[in-house]
Amino acid sequence: MNKQLVALVIAAAMISCTKSAAEPVIPPLSKAQLVYENIMSRRSIRAYKPEQVSRAQLDTLVQCAINAPSAGNGQSWQVRVIQSAEIMEKIRAINPNFSYGAPTLIAIAKDKKSGISSADCGFLTQNILLMAEAMDLGTVVLGNMGGIPNHPDAQDIMAALDLPDTHEIIFAVAVGYKDEAPEARPRDASKVKFIE
Ligand SMILES: Cc1cc2nc3c(=O)[nH]c(=O)nc-3n(C[C@H](O)[C@H](O)[C@H](O)COP(=O)(O)O)c2cc1C
Which residue's CA lies nearest to atom 31 of ligand 1? Predict the structure, then answer.
């Protein structure tokens, strides 16, 4: 083989190598696998790094939240994403461990007059938890946020949240970068029965 031919063969081999390397060799995960893995890997996170979550990340969480199902598409919730350092400070002053150090809180408020609004808020919240997990962000639901409005020092917080009189906080979700990796808590499968 002359030198030119050798060079041509090597060049052709390199091109074909580059081409095959760019092609996926591992089949993509199925949608079911991705959803299953995401649900099973989510944990309540109670230790956070101080880095703030970006507005773009929160916009994604909010989009997912409001695309949850709701009774009659009533969307009976009100949602307040709290990133203000001043308001977070005031919340922590009421209870230092309140947000477990997470830099962002999402307060979820239910319609006081609607019996189904709690369920609507639950579905909305689960979308936040699962999308956050998919984005490698930690979350924990904080039922005790419901007590904040009754605290004597909560006036500034409640004024900033600007909730309509029709709504009250049901819980909040702490959001931030995880600083722990807890084990899964046990689940009781005996509560589920199949009627066949
Ligand atoms: C409505 C609700 C309220 C909760 N309130 C709190 C809370 O105030 N503080 C807390 O640390 N965790 C709270 N959690 C988180 C639960 O403790 C947690 O989901 C449960 O132990 C299961 O653990 P996992 O989320 O890691 O699977 C709450 C969860 C829900 C759904």
Answer: 141
